[in-house]
Input
Amino acid sequence: MDGSEVITIERFIMEQERLHPEATGELSNLLYDLCLAAKIISRHVRRAGLTDILGTAGAVNVSGDLQQKLDLFANETVRHSIQHTGRVCVTASEEDEEPVPVPPGKPAGKYVVLYDPLDGSANIDVNVSIGTIFSIHRRVTRKNGPAGVADCLQAGKKQIAAGYILYGSSTMLVYTTGQGVHGFTLDPTIGEFLLSHPDITTPAVGKYYSVNESNWNRWTPPVQRVVAAFKNGEGRIQPKNARYIGSLVADFHRNLISGGIFLYPADTKNPHGKLRLLYEAAPLALVVEQAGGRATDGCRSILDISPEKLHQKTPLVIGSKDDVAFAARILAAEAVPQK
Ligand code: AHM
Ligand code: MG
Output
Protein backbone atom coordinates (compact mmCIF):
# COMPACT_ATOMS: atom_id res chain seq x y z
CA MET A 1 0.00 0.00 0.00
CA ASP A 2 1.60 3.35 -0.93
CA GLY A 3 0.95 6.53 1.06
CA SER A 4 -1.66 7.91 -1.34
CA GLU A 5 -3.87 4.85 -0.88
CA VAL A 6 -4.05 4.95 2.90
CA ILE A 7 -7.61 5.44 4.13
CA THR A 8 -7.97 5.97 7.84
CA ILE A 9 -11.14 4.90 9.60
CA GLU A 10 -11.92 8.57 10.32
CA ARG A 11 -11.79 9.41 6.63
CA PHE A 12 -13.85 6.35 5.72
CA ILE A 13 -16.55 7.10 8.29
CA MET A 14 -16.67 10.73 7.16
CA GLU A 15 -17.06 9.69 3.52
CA GLN A 16 -19.86 7.29 4.45
CA GLU A 17 -21.58 10.06 6.39
CA ARG A 18 -21.48 12.37 3.35
CA LEU A 19 -23.67 9.86 1.51
CA HIS A 20 -26.41 10.76 4.01
CA PRO A 21 -27.08 14.50 3.91
CA GLU A 22 -29.54 14.12 6.80
CA ALA A 23 -26.84 12.65 9.09
CA THR A 24 -26.01 14.76 12.14
CA GLY A 25 -22.54 13.28 12.58
CA GLU A 26 -23.42 11.82 15.98
CA LEU A 27 -23.15 8.20 14.85
CA SER A 28 -19.81 8.94 13.19
CA ASN A 29 -18.55 10.48 16.39
CA LEU A 30 -19.79 7.52 18.41
CA LEU A 31 -17.85 5.21 16.11
CA TYR A 32 -14.72 7.34 16.63
CA ASP A 33 -15.27 7.06 20.38
CA LEU A 34 -15.37 3.27 20.05
CA CYS A 35 -12.15 3.39 18.00
CA LEU A 36 -10.47 5.17 20.87
CA ALA A 37 -11.68 2.54 23.32
CA ALA A 38 -10.38 -0.15 20.94
CA LYS A 39 -6.92 1.43 20.85
CA ILE A 40 -6.74 1.71 24.63
CA ILE A 41 -7.88 -1.89 25.17
CA SER A 42 -5.53 -3.09 22.44
CA ARG A 43 -2.61 -1.35 24.13
CA HIS A 44 -3.41 -3.11 27.42
CA VAL A 45 -3.98 -6.49 25.79
CA ARG A 46 -0.58 -6.19 24.08
CA ARG A 47 1.05 -5.58 27.46
CA ALA A 48 -0.74 -8.46 29.18
CA GLY A 49 1.85 -10.52 31.01
CA LEU A 50 4.17 -7.52 31.34
CA THR A 51 2.05 -5.70 33.86
CA ASP A 52 -0.07 -6.97 36.70
CA ILE A 53 -3.24 -7.26 34.69
CA LEU A 54 -3.49 -10.97 34.05
CA GLY A 55 -5.63 -13.33 36.08
CA THR A 56 -9.06 -13.16 37.61
CA ALA A 57 -10.45 -10.29 39.57
CA GLY A 58 -12.10 -12.77 41.93
CA ALA A 59 -15.71 -11.91 41.07
CA VAL A 60 -18.22 -13.63 38.85
CA ASN A 61 -20.32 -11.76 36.30
CA VAL A 62 -24.07 -12.16 35.88
CA SER A 63 -23.60 -15.17 33.60
CA GLY A 64 -21.47 -16.94 36.20
CA ASP A 65 -18.09 -16.59 34.47
CA LEU A 66 -15.03 -15.62 36.42
CA GLN A 67 -14.30 -11.99 35.60
CA GLN A 68 -10.77 -11.43 34.41
CA LYS A 69 -8.96 -8.21 35.34
CA LEU A 70 -8.76 -7.23 31.70
CA ASP A 71 -12.53 -7.75 31.37
CA LEU A 72 -13.11 -5.13 34.01
CA PHE A 73 -10.62 -2.77 32.43
CA ALA A 74 -12.21 -3.19 29.00
CA ASN A 75 -15.70 -2.77 30.45
CA GLU A 76 -14.81 0.56 32.04
CA THR A 77 -12.79 1.73 29.05
CA VAL A 78 -15.67 1.30 26.63
CA ARG A 79 -18.12 2.98 28.98
CA HIS A 80 -15.84 5.90 29.76
CA SER A 81 -15.14 6.44 26.07
CA ILE A 82 -18.79 6.82 25.14
CA GLN A 83 -20.76 7.85 28.18
CA HIS A 84 -19.91 11.51 28.63
CA THR A 85 -20.22 12.66 25.05
CA GLY A 86 -23.93 13.46 24.82
CA ARG A 87 -24.31 10.86 22.08
CA VAL A 88 -25.38 7.92 24.26
CA CYS A 89 -28.25 7.63 26.77
CA VAL A 90 -27.56 4.18 28.22
CA THR A 91 -25.04 1.36 27.94
CA ALA A 92 -25.42 -2.31 28.78
CA SER A 93 -22.56 -4.75 29.05
CA GLU A 94 -22.13 -8.45 29.54
CA GLU A 95 -20.19 -7.58 32.70
CA ASP A 96 -22.85 -5.37 34.32
CA GLU A 97 -26.00 -6.69 35.92
CA GLU A 98 -28.15 -3.70 34.98
CA PRO A 99 -28.06 -1.12 32.19
CA VAL A 100 -26.01 1.94 33.04
CA PRO A 101 -27.70 5.23 32.13
CA VAL A 102 -25.49 8.30 31.60
CA PRO A 103 -24.67 9.84 34.98
CA PRO A 104 -26.99 12.56 36.29
CA GLY A 105 -25.97 15.99 35.04
CA LYS A 106 -24.48 14.60 31.80
CA PRO A 107 -26.35 15.08 28.52
CA ALA A 108 -28.22 11.99 27.32
CA GLY A 109 -27.96 11.30 23.59
CA LYS A 110 -30.04 9.27 21.20
CA TYR A 111 -27.97 6.10 21.04
CA VAL A 112 -27.88 2.89 23.09
CA VAL A 113 -24.68 0.85 23.15
CA LEU A 114 -24.63 -2.82 24.12
CA TYR A 115 -21.29 -4.57 24.33
CA ASP A 116 -19.23 -7.55 25.34
CA PRO A 117 -16.07 -5.80 26.49
CA LEU A 118 -13.71 -8.76 26.23
CA ASP A 119 -15.11 -11.82 24.58
CA GLY A 120 -13.16 -15.05 24.97
CA SER A 121 -11.61 -13.80 28.17
CA ALA A 122 -10.94 -17.34 29.41
CA ASN A 123 -8.19 -17.26 26.78
CA ILE A 124 -6.38 -14.17 28.07
CA ASP A 125 -3.92 -16.02 30.27
CA VAL A 126 -2.82 -18.29 27.43
CA ASN A 127 -2.23 -15.56 24.85
CA VAL A 128 -5.07 -16.49 22.49
CA SER A 129 -7.01 -13.91 20.44
CA ILE A 130 -9.87 -12.14 22.19
CA GLY A 131 -12.25 -9.40 21.13
CA THR A 132 -14.76 -6.67 21.92
CA ILE A 133 -18.24 -6.81 20.37
CA PHE A 134 -20.58 -3.80 20.11
CA SER A 135 -24.14 -3.13 19.04
CA ILE A 136 -25.75 0.30 18.57
CA HIS A 137 -29.49 0.99 18.73
CA ARG A 138 -31.49 4.16 18.63
CA ARG A 139 -33.19 5.17 21.86
CA VAL A 140 -36.89 4.22 21.97
CA THR A 141 -37.96 5.80 25.28
CA ARG A 142 -38.95 9.45 25.64
CA LYS A 143 -36.09 11.86 25.18
CA ASN A 144 -36.65 13.70 28.45
CA GLY A 145 -37.29 10.66 30.66
CA PRO A 146 -34.77 8.16 32.03
CA ALA A 147 -33.26 5.71 29.53
CA GLY A 148 -33.07 2.10 30.61
CA VAL A 149 -33.78 -1.52 29.94
CA ALA A 150 -36.57 -0.84 27.39
CA ASP A 151 -34.01 0.90 25.19
CA CYS A 152 -31.78 -2.17 25.36
CA LEU A 153 -34.42 -4.84 24.66
CA GLN A 154 -34.68 -4.32 20.91
CA ALA A 155 -34.59 -6.91 18.16
CA GLY A 156 -31.31 -7.21 16.28
CA LYS A 157 -32.87 -6.00 13.03
CA LYS A 158 -33.28 -2.58 14.66
CA GLN A 159 -29.52 -2.16 15.15
CA ILE A 160 -28.15 0.82 13.32
CA ALA A 161 -24.56 -0.34 13.60
CA ALA A 162 -22.60 -3.27 14.98
CA GLY A 163 -19.12 -4.62 14.90
CA TYR A 164 -16.18 -6.02 16.75
CA ILE A 165 -12.55 -5.48 17.53
CA LEU A 166 -10.26 -8.49 17.32
CA TYR A 167 -7.06 -8.44 19.33
CA GLY A 168 -5.28 -11.05 17.23
CA SER A 169 -1.98 -11.18 15.41
CA SER A 170 -2.95 -7.61 14.59
CA THR A 171 -5.79 -5.55 16.01
CA MET A 172 -8.72 -5.22 13.62
CA LEU A 173 -11.96 -3.31 13.81
CA VAL A 174 -14.79 -4.62 11.63
CA TYR A 175 -18.13 -2.85 11.50
CA THR A 176 -21.31 -2.25 9.57
CA THR A 177 -23.83 0.56 9.56
CA GLY A 178 -26.03 -1.41 7.17
CA GLN A 179 -23.98 -0.56 4.09
CA GLY A 180 -21.68 -3.50 3.85
CA VAL A 181 -18.98 -4.67 6.19
CA HIS A 182 -15.61 -2.97 6.34
CA GLY A 183 -12.47 -4.02 8.16
CA PHE A 184 -9.63 -1.83 9.44
CA THR A 185 -6.27 -2.88 10.78
CA LEU A 186 -4.56 -0.91 13.51
CA ASP A 187 -1.16 0.35 12.45
CA PRO A 188 0.51 0.57 15.85
CA THR A 189 3.29 2.80 14.55
CA ILE A 190 0.88 5.63 13.78
CA GLY A 191 -1.99 4.65 16.09
CA GLU A 192 -4.57 4.63 13.30
CA PHE A 193 -7.01 2.05 12.00
CA LEU A 194 -6.43 1.78 8.23
CA LEU A 195 -8.89 0.34 5.74
CA SER A 196 -7.58 -3.14 4.97
CA HIS A 197 -10.74 -5.13 4.15
CA PRO A 198 -13.30 -3.01 2.26
CA ASP A 199 -16.70 -4.55 1.46
CA ILE A 200 -16.17 -7.93 3.05
CA THR A 201 -18.34 -10.67 1.60
CA THR A 202 -18.35 -14.12 3.09
CA PRO A 203 -18.36 -17.20 0.82
CA ALA A 204 -21.78 -18.88 0.46
CA VAL A 205 -20.20 -22.23 1.33
CA GLY A 206 -17.46 -22.37 3.92
CA LYS A 207 -14.31 -24.38 4.41
CA TYR A 208 -14.65 -24.69 8.15
CA TYR A 209 -17.03 -25.83 10.86
CA SER A 210 -16.44 -24.48 14.35
CA VAL A 211 -18.08 -26.03 17.35
CA ASN A 212 -17.05 -27.33 20.75
CA GLU A 213 -17.32 -30.99 19.85
CA SER A 214 -16.63 -32.10 23.42
CA ASN A 215 -20.29 -31.21 24.02
CA TRP A 216 -21.40 -33.95 21.60
CA ASN A 217 -23.09 -36.10 24.25
CA ARG A 218 -25.08 -33.12 25.49
CA TRP A 219 -26.58 -32.32 22.08
CA THR A 220 -29.92 -33.32 20.62
CA PRO A 221 -29.89 -35.83 17.72
CA PRO A 222 -30.57 -33.05 15.12
CA VAL A 223 -27.53 -31.06 16.32
CA GLN A 224 -25.42 -34.22 16.20
CA ARG A 225 -26.64 -34.88 12.66
CA VAL A 226 -25.73 -31.35 11.54
CA VAL A 227 -22.24 -31.54 13.01
CA ALA A 228 -21.72 -35.06 11.61
CA ALA A 229 -22.73 -33.76 8.17
CA PHE A 230 -20.15 -30.96 8.29
CA LYS A 231 -17.52 -33.39 9.52
CA ASN A 232 -18.19 -36.29 7.17
CA GLY A 233 -20.25 -34.78 4.35
CA GLU A 234 -23.92 -35.46 3.58
CA GLY A 235 -25.76 -34.96 0.28
CA ARG A 236 -24.43 -31.73 -1.22
CA ILE A 237 -22.47 -30.85 1.93
CA GLN A 238 -18.80 -31.59 1.44
CA PRO A 239 -16.76 -32.51 4.52
CA LYS A 240 -15.22 -29.44 6.15
CA ASN A 241 -12.14 -28.84 8.26
CA ALA A 242 -12.71 -28.30 11.98
CA ARG A 243 -11.42 -25.04 13.47
CA TYR A 244 -12.37 -24.03 17.01
CA ILE A 245 -10.48 -21.46 19.01
CA GLY A 246 -13.07 -21.05 21.76
CA SER A 247 -12.98 -17.29 21.32
CA LEU A 248 -16.11 -16.25 19.45
CA VAL A 249 -14.73 -13.13 17.78
CA ALA A 250 -11.70 -15.02 16.51
CA ASP A 251 -13.73 -18.00 15.29
CA PHE A 252 -16.29 -15.70 13.71
CA HIS A 253 -13.70 -13.51 11.99
CA ARG A 254 -11.84 -16.44 10.46
CA ASN A 255 -15.08 -17.88 9.11
CA LEU A 256 -16.24 -14.48 7.84
CA ILE A 257 -13.10 -14.07 5.77
CA SER A 258 -12.52 -17.68 4.69
CA GLY A 259 -16.07 -19.02 4.80
CA GLY A 260 -17.37 -21.33 7.48
CA ILE A 261 -20.03 -22.02 10.03
CA PHE A 262 -19.87 -21.51 13.79
CA LEU A 263 -22.29 -23.32 16.08
CA TYR A 264 -22.99 -22.95 19.77
CA PRO A 265 -26.21 -24.94 20.06
CA ALA A 266 -28.30 -25.55 23.14
CA ASP A 267 -27.19 -28.57 25.12
CA THR A 268 -28.17 -30.28 28.35
CA LYS A 269 -25.81 -28.03 30.33
CA ASN A 270 -26.84 -24.83 28.50
CA PRO A 271 -30.49 -25.39 27.58
CA HIS A 272 -30.74 -21.92 26.00
CA GLY A 273 -27.27 -21.96 24.50
CA LYS A 274 -24.24 -20.26 26.03
CA LEU A 275 -23.87 -17.05 24.09
CA ARG A 276 -25.72 -13.83 24.82
CA LEU A 277 -28.25 -12.52 22.35
CA LEU A 278 -27.67 -8.81 22.83
CA TYR A 279 -23.91 -8.65 23.27
CA GLU A 280 -22.70 -11.45 21.00
CA ALA A 281 -25.27 -13.06 18.71
CA ALA A 282 -27.22 -10.03 17.44
CA PRO A 283 -24.26 -7.78 16.56
CA LEU A 284 -22.40 -10.60 14.79
CA ALA A 285 -25.65 -11.56 13.02
CA LEU A 286 -25.93 -8.05 11.58
CA VAL A 287 -22.30 -8.19 10.46
CA VAL A 288 -22.65 -11.62 8.87
CA GLU A 289 -25.90 -10.75 7.07
CA GLN A 290 -24.36 -7.57 5.71
CA ALA A 291 -21.52 -9.73 4.41
CA GLY A 292 -23.96 -12.12 2.70
CA GLY A 293 -24.10 -14.75 5.44
CA ARG A 294 -26.80 -15.85 7.82
CA ALA A 295 -27.46 -16.39 11.54
CA THR A 296 -30.18 -18.46 13.22
CA ASP A 297 -31.03 -19.90 16.61
CA GLY A 298 -32.21 -23.04 14.81
CA CYS A 299 -35.74 -21.86 14.10
CA ARG A 300 -35.59 -18.05 13.75
CA SER A 301 -33.25 -15.54 12.28
CA ILE A 302 -31.21 -14.11 15.16
CA LEU A 303 -32.09 -10.61 13.95
CA ASP A 304 -35.84 -11.31 14.39
CA ILE A 305 -35.65 -12.34 18.05
CA SER A 306 -37.29 -9.84 20.39
CA PRO A 307 -35.30 -10.03 23.61
CA GLU A 308 -37.11 -10.41 26.90
CA LYS A 309 -34.12 -10.18 29.22
CA LEU A 310 -30.92 -8.19 29.12
CA HIS A 311 -28.62 -11.17 29.57
CA GLN A 312 -30.71 -13.57 27.51
CA LYS A 313 -28.83 -16.46 25.96
CA THR A 314 -29.46 -18.00 22.60
CA PRO A 315 -28.32 -20.97 20.56
CA LEU A 316 -26.26 -19.61 17.67
CA VAL A 317 -25.57 -20.98 14.20
CA ILE A 318 -23.80 -18.34 12.12
CA GLY A 319 -21.72 -18.05 9.00
CA SER A 320 -21.81 -18.98 5.33
CA LYS A 321 -25.31 -18.73 3.90
CA ASP A 322 -25.72 -22.18 2.38
CA ASP A 323 -24.17 -23.95 5.35
CA VAL A 324 -26.43 -22.14 7.83
CA ALA A 325 -29.45 -22.85 5.63
CA PHE A 326 -28.57 -26.55 5.65
CA ALA A 327 -28.23 -26.58 9.44
CA ALA A 328 -31.43 -24.57 9.90
CA ARG A 329 -33.43 -27.04 7.77
CA ILE A 330 -32.45 -29.93 10.00
CA LEU A 331 -32.71 -28.05 13.30
CA ALA A 332 -36.03 -26.35 12.49
CA ALA A 333 -37.69 -29.72 11.92
CA GLU A 334 -37.43 -30.51 15.66
CA ALA A 335 -36.88 -27.11 17.18
CA VAL A 336 -38.75 -25.82 20.19
CA PRO A 337 -38.56 -22.00 20.10
CA GLN A 338 -36.07 -20.70 22.70
CA LYS A 339 -36.89 -17.93 25.15
P1 AHM B 1 -17.19 -14.78 27.10
O1 AHM B 1 -15.71 -14.89 27.05
O2 AHM B 1 -17.70 -13.41 26.81
O3 AHM B 1 -17.79 -15.37 28.35
O4 AHM B 1 -17.77 -15.58 25.83
C1 AHM B 1 -18.04 -16.88 25.78
C2 AHM B 1 -17.01 -17.62 24.95
C3 AHM B 1 -16.98 -17.34 23.48
O5 AHM B 1 -15.97 -16.45 23.12
C4 AHM B 1 -16.71 -18.70 22.88
O6 AHM B 1 -17.26 -18.86 21.61
C5 AHM B 1 -17.35 -19.61 23.87
O7 AHM B 1 -17.43 -18.93 25.09
C6 AHM B 1 -16.55 -20.84 24.10
O8 AHM B 1 -17.23 -21.67 25.00
P2 AHM B 1 -16.77 -23.17 25.29
O9 AHM B 1 -15.53 -23.06 26.12
O10 AHM B 1 -17.92 -23.75 26.06
O11 AHM B 1 -16.55 -23.85 23.99
MG1 MG C 1 -18.51 -13.05 25.22
Observations:
- Residues 65, 94, 116, 119-122, 212, 246-248, 274 surround AHM (ligand 1) (CB under 6 Å).
